[in-house]
């Protein structure tokens, strides 16, 4: 298999053979036990009891946590996963588990009374609206200089993300994770991650003809006319399901614009893949609406873990203390970094490395829209699952996802999320006076990302005679430079931990999530987070258990 779906796929036309050659072994391996991974039941949940002892406790149920739980359970270790978000396994009053992107409701945001949509305005109108405070699925966590968007619930970011499953170009891997053997990653762990996640490509012939990818074909035309490589990237969405959505034979999800607040159908989130497999071992239990607040070593060995049980308004309905032989931090880059920074500063885990909290980056995320000519419609039907990007990483330090703008009306807009090479790294620190962890990211640090994105879009605009949209992020504001979807770092591999995620100073404590990656992955990060977790957990099981 070409483990790098970006490599050599910048041709002008979509080659069916190239697609199939690039994905056949992914598809062949996309079953973890002979059946399509997404056809399984979701993970079972069972709240932990106060005073319980567990061999392995995993904090968080995103990519890193799900890999750890599955592999530990397969190795015969009983695992309990603690998740602050909801289980997302039952329908609301409208008969659906998840809210639609165009109609956010109480389910959409984590403990906010007003939505905080990534695109805040449209054609002069503000989009945000009041919602009841609820333990909703998308957290827009405000760190002053930047909003960090994260998934909350069993499945973590896999619940809310666009499913773009991108393996970085191998030649870029050295700058992503310099201490990791690239050969091993591309031969073993990236293929294993892609298989476990159920990654596959859209059928190129269908893509060329369907209305719902008109916006992506316009994106291709504009990229190629300006001489940029246009690359197809795989996704975890079930393409057969999407084709049936287009044919009108099944309930719509991606074609109803669902993304950000959950997909009611079609997307293989971790609930349908790794977590379902973990649950099937009979050794993994999950406690939703439980938030870990403390981890401290016990004299008798192992660790004491404190947590709060939450109700759906975010109120604490009880505190629990349990013990664990081993604890895996998988609360995501922001979650793990803030927890470890606080535990070190407040004396619970004082021997943690001074590297804790450092090396945090936003994966160079910056958004923008372009206004197309009237003869270049992008389509009122847009699949919410992106399939392609413009790769100018080598020349301009930018990889731009051709993103949907699924409004249900013709907007004549092209929309992009760029991942850029941004040198700035921020640090999480304990603010004793305020009793919270701060992040010293500055908004001005997005300028290198804007400059990198402009290497693509200034050229396209000049060639096409088009302009930037100024109405999406406020009034007369071109760049969505206030946020990231891709927080990375804060407990960097081989610095804050050893080269396999073991925290210095505390045997039996591990980091397995995106906080290990030092700030940038050159592409969308979840495949790299998954592959790195596969690599590290395999070593931990072999050497430590
Ligand atoms: P993550 O998936 O965030 O899981 C951490 C989990 O820990 C969450 O469920 C938290 O609720 C939970 N947690 C946190 N603190 C605690 C605590 N104290 N106690 C208990 N539980 C806790 O971590 N990436 C791509 O590769 N492709 C995409 O197309 C893509 N699109 C995205 C779109 C959006 C809107 C967003 C927000 C992200 C997107 N991402 C995408 C990023 C991707 O989802 C993210 O990198 C991964 O989810 C990070 O995985 P982790 O395992 O690090």
UniProtKB/TrEMBL annotation:
Its EC number(s): 1.1.3.6, 5.3.3.1
Alphabetically ordered keywords of this record: Cholesterol metabolism, FAD, Flavoprotein, Isomerase, Lipid metabolism, Oxidoreductase, Steroid metabolism, Sterol metabolism
Gene3D superfamilies, sorted: Cholesterol Oxidase, domain 2, FAD/NAD(P)-binding domain
Gene Ontology MF term list: cholesterol oxidase activity; flavin adenine dinucleotide binding; steroid Delta-isomerase activity
Domain Glucose-methanol-choline oxidoreductase N-terminal: 146-342
BP GO annotations: cholesterol metabolic process
Residue ranges annotated for the Glucose-methanol-choline oxidoreductase C-terminal domain, each copy included: 484-533
Pathway entry: Steroid metabolism; cholesterol degradation
Cofactor(s) in the UniProt record: FAD
Keyword Membrane on entry: no
Highest taxon above the source species: Bacteria
InterPro entries: Cholesterol_Oxidase, FAD/NAD-bd_sf, GMC_OxRdtase_N, GMC_OxRtase_C, TAT_signal
Entry similarity comment: Belongs to the GMC oxidoreductase family.
Protein name: Cholesterol oxidase
Organism per entry: Amycolatopsis cihanbeyliensis
């Amino acid at each position: 298999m070409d483990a790098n779906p970006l490599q050599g796929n910048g041709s002008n036309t979509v080659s069916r053979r190239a697609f199939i050659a690039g994905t056949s072994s992914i598809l062949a391996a996309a079953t973890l036990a002979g059946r399509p991974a997404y056809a399984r039941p979701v993970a079972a949940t069972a709240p932990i009891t106060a005073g319980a002892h567990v061999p392995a406790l995993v904090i968080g149920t995103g990519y890193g946590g799900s890999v750890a739980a599955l592999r530990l359970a397969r190795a015969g270790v009983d695992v309990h996963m603690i998740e602050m978000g909801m289980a997302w396994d039952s329908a609301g009053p409208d008969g659906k588990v998840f809210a639609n992107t165009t109609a956010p409701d109480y389910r959409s945001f984590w403990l906010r009374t007003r939505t905080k949509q990534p695109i805040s305005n449209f054609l002069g109108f503000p989009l945000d609206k009041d919602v009841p405070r609820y333990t909703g699925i998308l957290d827009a966590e405000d760190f002053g200089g930047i909003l960090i968007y994260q998934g909350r619930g069993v499945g973590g970011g896999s619940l809310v993300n666009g499913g773009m499953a991108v393996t970085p170009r191998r030649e870029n891997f050295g700058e992503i994770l310099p201490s990791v053997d690239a050969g091993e990653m591309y031969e073993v762990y990236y293929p294993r991650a892609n298989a476990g996640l159920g990654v596959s490509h859209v059928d190129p012939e269908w893509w060329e003809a369907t209305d719902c990818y008109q916006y992506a074909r316009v994106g291709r035309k504009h990229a190629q006319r300006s001489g940029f490589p246009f690359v197809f990237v795989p996704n975890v969405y079930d393409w057969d399901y999407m084709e049936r959505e287009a044919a009108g034979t099944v309930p719509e999800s991606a074609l109803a614009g669902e993304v950000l607040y959950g997909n009611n159908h079609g997307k293989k989130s971790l609930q349908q893949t790794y977590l379902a497999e973990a649950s099937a071992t009979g050794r993994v239990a999950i406690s939703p609406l439980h938030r870990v607040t403390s981890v401290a070593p016990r004299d008798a060995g192992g660790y004491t873990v404190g947590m709060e049980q939450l109700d759906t308004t975010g109120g604490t309905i009880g505190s629990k203390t349990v013990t664990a032989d081993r604890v895996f931090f998988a609360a995501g880059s922001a979650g793990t970094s803030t927890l470890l920074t606080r535990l070190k500063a407040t004396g619970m885990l004082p021997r943690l490395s001074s590297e804790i909290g450092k090396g945090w980056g936003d994966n160079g995320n910056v958004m923008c829209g372009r206004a197309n000519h009237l003869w270049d419609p992008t389509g009122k039907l847009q699949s919410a699952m992106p399939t392609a990007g413009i790769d100018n990483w080598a020349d301009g330090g930018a990889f731009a996802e051709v993103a949907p703008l699924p409004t249900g009306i013709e907007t004549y807009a092209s929309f992009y999320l760029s991942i850029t090479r941004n040198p700035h790294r921020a640090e999480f620190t304990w603010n004793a006076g305020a009793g919270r962890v701060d992040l010293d990211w500055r908004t001005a640090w997005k300028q290198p990302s804007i400059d990198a994105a402009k290497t693509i879009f200034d050229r396209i605009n000049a060639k096409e005679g088009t302009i930037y949209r100024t109405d999406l992020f406020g009034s007369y504001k071109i760049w969505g430079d206030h946020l990231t979807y891709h927080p990375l770092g804060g407990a960097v591999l081989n610095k804050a931990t050893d080269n396999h995620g073991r925290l210095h100073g505390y045997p039996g404590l591990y980091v397995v999530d995106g906080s290990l990656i030092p700030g940038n992955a050159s592409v969308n990060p979840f495949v790299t987070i998954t592959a790195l977790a596969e690599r590290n957990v395999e070593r931990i099981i072999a050497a430590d258990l």
